[in-house]
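User: Show me sequence and structure for the first protein, then do the same for the second.

Assistant: Starting with the first protein.
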Amino acid sequence: MPDRTLIRRLRLASLLEGFTLLLLLFVAVPAKHLFGHPMAVRVVGSVHGLFFLFFLWSLIAAASAGGWSRGELVRIFIGAFIPFGVFLNAPLLKQKELVVTVSEPRGEGR
């Protein structure tokens, strides 16, 4: 059974990665090409890259704890490459967290 802390960390990493992807695609890239500000892509791209690495680390940590189907892991991973994919995976991650929370014995919650 996965740890609730690992799932929360994965949810946070997924949200940060997804929002910075949207920021990169819909703010930084247009700022570069329409307004001539290439630094926007460098800065937002670097931040997005760091959050993507945080996301990968969190996904690997959650997956190694067990309790995930291969399909769920693939879905979460692919969602990181799709704009707005974070919103498709958010209900799955929230449901996983709720299941783990309900199944935890009282007093062991973090």
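Switching to the second protein now.
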Amino acid sequence: MRLFAPVTIIAIAQLLGTSLWFSANGAADDLIASWKITATDIGWLTNAVQAGFILGTLVLALGGIADRFRASRIFIFSALAGALFNACFAWLAHDIISALVLRFFVGICLAGIYPMGMKLVVSWAPEHAGAALAQLVAMLTLGTALPHGLRELGADIPWQWIISASSVLAIVAALLIFQLGDGPHLPAPVSVKLRSRSKRFVTPAVLQAFRIPRFRAAAWGYFGHMWELYALWTVLPLLIASVGLGEVFPELGIAGLSFTFIGVGALGCLAGGLLSRRFGSSVVAITALVTSGCCVLIFALLWDQLSTIWLVLLFSVWGATVIADSPQFSALSASACPRELVGAALAIQNSIGFGITVISIAALSRLFEVSGPNAVWLLLPGPVLGVCGFLFALWRSPRVSTPPHNPAGNEKHPR
């Protein structure tokens, strides 16, 4: 049990550090009113973060940085830099252009927080990666919801202070990881000297991870999940407003309901982590992806016919399952890779996954302005292709496959 104390610390640091991610969305109403922008512009602010994250993870993976330097040092530097850029966004941005630039730099910094947080978890608890990563992603989910909660608690506080609160939380995250350091279960960082002698060591090896059938299966599932996840989180306040739940629950309002329906994903992650120890990460991941896909279908078909109770239930199940598969797909990916490439492999998977979110967020935000909640149909291909790709890649994999490294320990390998 003592082993999970470091995991808990990392999870809390992840919660505080990733509050930077959607800090602008928590102040969306104020930004729309102050800068005379539209919902599409809010989507572009989110996409600026995603684009920065993609660039950052590509540099980490293809440049070998993720495995050349200690994960704790990258996390600390990134959290402090992210806090600075986020504060600059709050106090120095004066229009959508300057805001996009600063949010882009926040996204670059988040690339050193999220994947490195996963690597830190694997370095402390490799034999329970599915359950441990579930804690981490649960905190990422709460971190995503946190700006909405801060907005609800400080409804009368200027939006600049609400966003600045995320910077303070990121600094606390850096201090927590500074005190903890790296775990004992990963190889020492790859030296610059070693890489200079063999330029083929880092980049080709990372890309060849996709030749591993079980990594490729997990990646397919992860990519389908990412098409749905961040696009849903981006438009969730708009969906809540469109179906009138903000008026039904005025004491919570749209911000409070957004916090609730995103935050319930933390419970979904924790439940998935517990279930993964009994049934394996594959079963949990696919079950969650299928369930969230069914929620997309039900909402798209019946959103204007469901009663308040059924809408609340649907949003709750959707919020819980749309993220519950993420830590399990990451655990499966980590278990399929050689130990010395875990950081880079997770970073490149994150990079591609977040590249997909840029497309889905932009498309859904624009389509929402045209067709309202009916635009949710656009999310459905993600779960469908994710499930099909995952199952097909497993079907094509060898019957007997022993991965070189299995930090998920408990995973039951089908076939």
